Amino acid sequence: MEPRSVEELMDLLYAGRHQHALRTAALLRRSRPADKELQVAGLVQDIGAPEAVRSLLGERVFRLVRGERDPAAPADDDLLRLRQADAESRTAGFDAGVLEDWRTVLELVAARNSRLGAVD
């Protein structure tokens, strides 16, 4: 299913393994607080095919999620950081909050992608 709105994306996240996603996104928020797209990539990487988030969240989030799933993909600094946060989140034992905390960040990234798409 390709989410057409942040609300549909939130439903997909709630249906999945969101504790792992929350920890990954929280680790990315700590290491790169200004990079909302990287944080969102950590949050949505487990919801299905990478193409599912492309139209809503944009090319960069799509590229990061796709690269995370493909170990043979050439890794830039962002992808390496995403992979590291993903690995750390599997053993991290901290409270990463709740999915609702991420709604505004998802809305910001989706709105930015929508504006950029309108310009292209």
Structural notes for this entry:
By secondary structure, the chain is an all-alpha fold. Helix content is 68%, strand content 0%. It has seven helices and no strands. Helix 2 runs antiparallel to helix 3, helix 3 (36-44) packs across helix 5 and helix 3 (36-44) packs across helix 6 (77-89). The two termini are 25 Å apart. The model has no long low-confidence stretch (mean pLDDT 90).
Helix- and strand-based class? Answer: mainly alpha
Radius of gyration, rounded? 13 Å
- Percent of residues in helices: 55-70%
Largest sheet: none
% residues in beta strands: under 5%
How many distinct beta strands? 0
Low-confidence stretches: none
Number of helices: 7
Can you write the helix and strand succession as a string?
HHHHHHH
Give the SSE map:
Blueprint: H1 6-15, H2 18-31, H3 36-44, H4 51-57, H5 59-69, H6 77-89, H7 103-119
Helix pairs in contact: 2-3, 2-6, 3-5, 3-6, 4-5
In short:
The chain has 120 residues and is mostly helical.
